[in-house]
């Protein structure tokens, strides 16, 4: 149980184009979904927190207009990188949270990630 | 003080030995603690969660929690080369009910 999928797994695009990444919780309804970015050999960086039906909460320094998040249902969140540039090339990972029995807080389960390369 | 601290490593451990990974946290009211493993180029996967003081065992993995010392650890017995990865400690914060990740410890199991 607690499987999270991401699509696509890898994308290469030209500078200036927009890229949409989907994150789905396959066998559970997620209370919250999160979007992270990770550059090579660096730690996870939380970009935004997303709740179904409401606006995403962005971390400091993350541009809302550049990284559009839509949380259409309890099982689907999308991240759109608008007008992508080479510096946006990174590994984008989503996670979905699930309140498990015995847990005081939600547990996060990660998707497999999307590797974005902007030429 | 950083909210969740881990030694970045690399920690090198001979195959078959016990690997000990440590994590300290600053929010004394934290209630939930997690260990994730991340292989190079992959996303993190949950290994264990722990909520109460003491030890919790799952196969070769044992999580240890000491809330008084604000310390959580992960022991890996009979270490295998396949255990070589970065291990992330994650702790919830009551302040805003977020889960905060440490920067991870790189573990290298020597064949």
In short:
The complex is a heterodimer of chains A (about 120) and B (about 110). Chain A has no helices and eleven strands.
Please give the structural blueprint:
The complex is a heterodimer of chains A (119) and B (111).
Chain A: E1 4-7, E2 10-13, E3 19-25, E4 33-38, E5 45-50, E6 57-58, E7 67-73, E8 76-81, E9 90-99, E10 106-110, E11 114-118
Parallel strand pairs in A: 2-11
Antiparallel strand pairs in A: 1-3, 3-8, 4-5, 4-9, 5-6, 7-8, 9-10, 9-11
Chain B: E1 4-5, E2 11-14, E3 19-25, E4 33-38, E5 45-50, E6 54-58, E7 61-66, E8 71-76, E9 85-93, E10 98-101, E11 105-110
Parallel strand pairs in B: 2-11
Antiparallel strand pairs in B: 1-3, 3-8, 4-5, 4-9, 6-7, 7-8, 9-10, 9-11
Textual characterization of the structure:
The complex is a heterodimer of chains A (119) and B (111). Chain A has 119 residues and is mainly β. Helices cover 0% and strands 52% of the residues of chain A. Chain A is built from no helices and eleven strands. In chain A, strand 5 and strand 6 (57-58) form a beta hairpin. Chain B has 111 residues and is mainly beta. Chain B is built from no helices and eleven strands. In chain B, the strands form two sheets. In chain B, strands 2, 4, 5, 9, 10 and 11 form a six-stranded mixed sheet that branches. In chain B, strands 1-3-8-7-6 form a five-stranded antiparallel sheet, with no helix packed on it. In chain B, a hairpin with a 2-residue loop joins strand 6 and strand 7 (61-66). Classes of the chains: A mainly beta (119), B mainly beta (111). The A-B interface holds A 43-44, 46, 49, 91, 93, 97, 100, 102-113 and B 31-32, 34, 36, 41-46, 49, 51, 88, 90, 92, 97-99, 101-104.
């Amino acid at each position: 149980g607690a499987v999270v999928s991401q699509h696509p797994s890898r994308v290469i695009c030209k500078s200036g184009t927009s890229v949409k990444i989907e994150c789905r919780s396959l066998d559970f309804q997620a209370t919250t979904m999160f979007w992270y970015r990770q550059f090579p050999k660096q730690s996870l960086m939380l970009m935004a927190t997303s709740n179904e039906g409401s606006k995403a909460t962005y971390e400091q320094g993350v541009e809302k207009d550049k990284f559009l998040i839509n949380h259409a249902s309890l099982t689907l969140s999308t991240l759109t990188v608008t007008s992508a540039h080479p510096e946006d090339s990174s590994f984008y990972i989503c996670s979905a949270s699930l309140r498990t029995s015995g847990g005081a807080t939600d547990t996060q389960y990660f998707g497999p990630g999307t590797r974005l390369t902007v030429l | 003080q950083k909210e969740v601290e881990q030694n970045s490593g690399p920690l090198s451990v001979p195959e078959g030995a016990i690997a000990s990974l440590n994590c300290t946290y600053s929010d004394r009211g934290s209630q939930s603690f997690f260990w994730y493993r991340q292989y190079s180029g992959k996303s993190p996967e949950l290994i264990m969660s722990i909520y109460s003081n003491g030890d919790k065992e799952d196969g070769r993995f044992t999580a240890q929690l000491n809330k008084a010392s604000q310390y959580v650890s992960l022991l890996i017995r009979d270490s295998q080369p396949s255990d070589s990865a970065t291990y992330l400690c994650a702790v919830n914060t009551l302040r805003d009910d977020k889960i905060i990740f440490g920067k991870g410890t790189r573990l290298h199991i020597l064949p």
